[in-house]
Amino acid sequence: MKTDIEIAQSCEMRPIYEIAKKAGIPESWVEPYGKYKAKIIRPATAAMAENAKLILVTAINPTPAGEGKTTTTIGLADALNRLGKRTMVALREPSLGPVFGVKGGAAGGGYAQVVPMEDINLHFTGDFHAIGAANNLLAAMLDNHIQQGNALGIDAKRITWKRCVDMNDRQLRFVVDGLGGKANGTPREDGFDITVASEVMAVLCLANDLADLKQRLSRIIVAYTYGGKPVTAGDLKAHGAMAALLKDAIRPNLVQTLEGNPAFVHGGPFANIAHGCNSVSATKLALSLSDYTVTEAGFGADLGAEKFLDIKCRMAGLRPSAVVIVATVRALKYNGGVPKAELNQENLEALERGLPNLLRHVGNVKDVYGLPCVVAINRFPNDTEAELALIEAKCRELGVNVALSEVWAKGGEGGESLAREVLRLCEQPNDFHFCYELDQPLRTKIEAIAKRVYHAGRVNFLPAAAKQLDEFEAMGYGKLPICVAKTQYSFTDDQNVLGAPEDFTITVREVKISAGAGFIVALTGSIMTMPGLPKSPAAERIDVDESGRITGLF
Fold this sequence. Notes:
Number of helices: 18
Helix content: 25-40%
Shape: globular
Radius of gyration: 23 Å
Largest sheet: 12 strands, mixed
């Protein structure tokens, strides 16, 4: 059996100008990065009628067994194109952190991938490097301002801005810098975030255009003065140079699926520590060029879908037509207590114990957000008919259909039954609404997410977090939406609690303001904004031969 990278490398890719033509993109908009990928430069005067149906693909809480959300997203778009529907796919860019950490790649899998897979998973068009450079320029200008006399009166003990790097590196979570004497800066405690958790990433993903990007950058709060006044990137006169570094990065990236269909891959925040969606600019461009646009949101629906709906759709004025919730028999049995080594054996009892995790996500999409949905079972060879029938019966009790997805093995052909159900759902009226309203107090909004989406019984705000919330409301930021940072593995803030627990406590330990992105970040449990590498990182299995051919990348 071929590996994902072997399948991708055996694909005969079409020149990017041909893909652009198929998408209806004028040649003058295409700025190629080699033969098979390009930035799209849409003139500000170009019409943008966003009339396509928007389809969100999300999933159950991730497990070591895998779910295949990106694979299903790509396969569904290919299937819709096979059915004669003009369809675009809009995905996030992979971060080098997971590529070299646990996952080893994030461009789909099997015969449902975007290519060139190696480029997309590694440096791609340099967007993440530009974001990291802009983030770190702001950090350097902040420290330089203090070094050069500190005219703004910045309190070095109240600096909130961190440097970033796109790599899992726990050693950088907490550092002390500025050592070595007065000429080398002001000694202080500092730290790094992974690039996808940088507010600059969120700003780029939520900005409509370069002008909006620059305005958002200017609003980023980096520190506070001795008098408690917030200091912004605009105060430091850093936003213009930051925007200059990002002028190309904000342009959506065009690539192709294995079946030669257009795909935008742009932006990549994690949904556990950021808002987890691809860029607004890429999504809107796809909507203007298609009749159906398929997009994804990171991790489980409690994180990615919640933020896609409550943050991205609210800010960008988007309205989804249907939601796909991806699950596997294996992952549900894992939620039911089966060890990873035994997941290939039929176990209806464990499957029934694990099914509530899927049903919770289904209920949230239908009842909290008022959207029609379908469950896509990403089929594995060892799945039995009895197991598939049990899932179908339980979902039918909630009025939701189940479609088998075999896109990993068959590409778009294996997703046609899912595509037909999605088309049916897109024609149904829906009552889309948000989990909370912006004019509610910040605590109430956090509690709404915790209780309505996670099904927590209460939210415990630690004293520091409670004080921060009061300060943010006093500063005039009380009407911003909420971005919860939480473990992706559980509805709770404890990654070891699987299934669909009820009446637990969510602990908010810290709250941060992302004034440029336009949301409040609530950090729960022990979640970190700089991951670490596992005991056996994927990097150990990645290599390149003398001809430049990469191996081990998924």
